Structures are given as C-alpha cells and as structure tokens.
Amino acid sequence: MRKLLPALMMVGLATGAAAQSNIVIKGAVRGDLKGYHKVYVFGDGIKEDSVEMKDGRFTISIPWVKDAIPYLYSAYDAKMRSGPPAFPVVVDGPGTIYIDLADVTKGLRSGAIRGNRSATAFQAFEEGREQLKTDLRAAVNERFRDKPKNDSTSNKAFLQLMQQRLIPYITNFVETNADAYIGAFILGRYQVILPPDDLERLYNKLGPAQKASAPAKEVAARLNGMKKAVTGAEVTDFTLDSPEDKSITFSSFRGKYVLIDFWASWCGPCKASFPYMKQLYQQYRGDKFEIVGISIDQEKAAWLNELKKQELPWPRYWIQKRCR
C-alpha cells in the first residue's frame, strides 16, 4: 500500500497537468435553437472542430497553444442572425472559460464570459467600443439630421470623430492592462491607427512576459520598421524570388531611385493604380529609376495568374515563400 500511494499520487498529478494544458470552454445557452445545435471552433494554430449542444449546454476542449486565439460561432447565429457570427476568445493560458447566454436571439458573442482575465477584459473592451460607436453615430446623425442617411459628409465626420475618441479609449485600456496578455493583444490589434509616439510609449509599458508575446513582437517590428523608414535611412537588404524562381537581392538595385510597390491579386486599389504607374515608369525608367513590385499573395498561383492579366513591365517578386 505504501508503494501504491505515491504511484497513484503521481498519476493524479500527471492527469491534472494534462487537463491544465487545455483550454476548456463551457457554454450555457437559453432559448429556442430552432434545430441548430452545433458550436464550432477554429483559429490559426487551432484544429477546426465542432460539438453538439445538449439541453443548451456545450463543452469544447482544445490544446492551449501560446498566442493562438480560438474563434467560436454557433450554427444558430450563422443561420438566424445577420453579421459575422464568429468571435475571438482571447485566452492567456490554459484553464476553463464559461460563456453564459441568457437569450439565444442576441448571439453567442453577447454571452457573459468569465474564468479568464484576458477573455473577460476583451469582451469588456469590445462592449465599450461598440457603445462608443453607437453614441458617436447618434451624435453625428443629430448634427446632420437634414442630410440623407448615408451622406458622405456625415460619414466622414463620424469616422474622424470615431478615430479621435477611439485612440484615447485604446490607450487607457492598454495602460490599465499592461501587465496582462490582453494589453499586448489590444496594442497589436490596433497598432495601425495609433500615432507612433503613443505606440512606442504603450509598448514600453508592457512587462517582459507581454513583450515576448506575438502581438507585442509585431508592434516591436513595426516600431523598428518606422525608425528605419525615415528619409535618408538605408533599406535593410533582402532577397526575394521572381516568377521564374530566380532569387534577387535588393542591393542589386543600388545606385537607383527605387519605388517599392506592395500589392496583391485581391487588392482592388492596388490594381487600379497600375495604369498610372505604367505611365510613370514609361516616363522615368532608365539607369537611375526602377519600380520593384512585391506581391503579398498567400498563394503563388494567384500571384502568377494576376501577373498575366496586368502585364507589369517592371521587376516583380513574391514575398510569401521567404516568409514561410
């Protein structure tokens, strides 16, 4: 018996550790599901899966992977509600998360989340952002009440006001949560709209663990890129592949003025600019000027097919092979 007890304790500890390496999402939904009982989970680094709700309850268990964000959606929301049904559950570690939805008609994403600080904080952030959006829209509609509903002037005023109010909202949130994963996540999510000074200041407020997260690393790379993008700074050399799979380094264009054009086959505005760029190229091409087109398409086939349509006269390269 004395030999058996330590062995049983070790088994118990191993089982507990295995359970804690998972994210377990438990949901309770009230209301008529209209026959749509499935809940789905997916995300980068997460295997797509689904479970069946029984008596309005479901449990999803997935391995916890650092920086992987599970997205949930229900079959009910996909069939019975408008708008995107999927929403992220921003977890910062393994454990159990609870979602309680009192009214199925309001959508699974509106269910109260508890059990994980970052997941709970993200929901609070989103609710505050939506309320801010609603209040500002009402204020702009009142200001332009004599204008048509989708008037461009009122829409422009709304977007400007939203950005003015959203930036301090994001800033306050990140400062409050700088010691948690959710702080780094929100900073990474909104890094594009934040002024560079605010972005760097908020990044510096993050703790070492948060700076080691994927969102914070993206912010660090952006800050580094902005510092290198100032007038007079030298572009760090890189190597990309041509349509013929020939590698070329950027330094091979040394001595020329180079216009780097990032584009993709799915980018309408990018392709709309090509006729004007061709005129520019025809006028200035020569020993001192070059255009370098860099595709960010995920699939090489999409890039090559679009190249046939566009007939771009300058050097073209694909970035994804080098990023994989």
UniProtKB/TrEMBL annotation:
Residues forming the Thioredoxin domain are 229-324
- Give a Pfam family name: AhpC-TSA
* Record's signal peptide: 1-19
- InterPro entries registered for this protein in UniProt: AhpC/TSA (IPR000866), Thioredoxin-like_sf (IPR036249), Thioredoxin_CS (IPR017937), Thioredoxin_domain (IPR013766), Thioredoxin_ResA/DsbE_sf (IPR050553)
The subcellular localization recorded is: Cell envelope
Q: Which CDD domains match?
A: TlpA_like_family
- What is the protein name given in its UniProt record? Redoxin domain-containing protein
